[in-house]
Amino acid sequence: MEHAAILIAPDGPSGPLRGLMDRLGSSGITTTIVDDVPTAAELARKHDSPPALLLDVREWSAGEVEDVRNAGELIRRVLVAMPTSLPVVIGDDAAPRMILACIRAGAADVIDLSLEGTATARAIVQRICLRQYDRAREQDNFGQVRGMVEDLLKDLIRTERRSIDLEERLARRE
User: What is the rounded CA–CA span in Å between residue 50 and residue 2?
Assistant: First the structure.
C-alpha cells in the first residue's frame, strides 16, 4: 500500500513545514499541498487508499482562546467533509492547551515541528494511513453485510406474501 498525505496549508508550506514535506517525500510518502478543505476532500476521494490529512495550525500554536477556536473549527470542517478521516495537526512549538483542544476536537495525532523529526512524522503518517485503510475496509464490509441482510429480508417478505396468497387460495377451495 502506498502511503500518501494531503497537507491543508492556506498560506502554503514555509520554513520547517516545507522541510518536513520534502523529507516525507524523500522517505516515500507523497504529499500534496492544498489551500482548503473542499479541495482536500476531492483529492482524497481520488486516492485508492485514504491519505493522511495534515492540518497546518502553526499560525494558531500560541493557544490563545481564538487560536484554539480556529483550530477546532478547522478540524470539525475536515471531519464533516471526510467523516472517516483521522486528521493530524501540525504545529510549531504548540502550547499544551492547543494540543489538547485539537485532540478533543477530533485530531488523531499531533506533529510538533520543533520537537519531532522525520522518522516520527513518517511513522505517524504511515500509522494514520493504515488506520484509515482499516476503517474504510470495515465500512465496506459493513455495507456488504447490510446489503445481504436487506436482500434476505426482502426475500423473507416475498416468501411470506406467497404463503399468505396460498393460504387464501386454499381457504377458498374448502
Answer: 10
- Residue recorded with cell 404463503: 163
Summarised one tens digit per residue, pLDDT across range 40-90 is 999 998 888 889 999 998 888 777 888 888 899 999 999 999 888 899 999
Cβ atoms of 130 and 54 within 8 Å: the answer is no
DSSP the chain: ---EEEEE-TT---THHHHHHHHHHHTT-EEEEESSHHHHHHHHHHSSSPPEEEEE-GGGTT--HHHHHHHHHHHHHHHHH-TT---EEEESS--HHHHHHHHHHT-SEEEETTT--HHHHHHHHHHHHHHHHHHHHHHHHHHHHHHHHHHHHHHHHHHHHHHHHHHHHHHHH-
pLDDT recorded at residue 1 = 63
pLDDT in tens, 87-122: 999 988 878 888 888 999 999 999 988 888 778 888
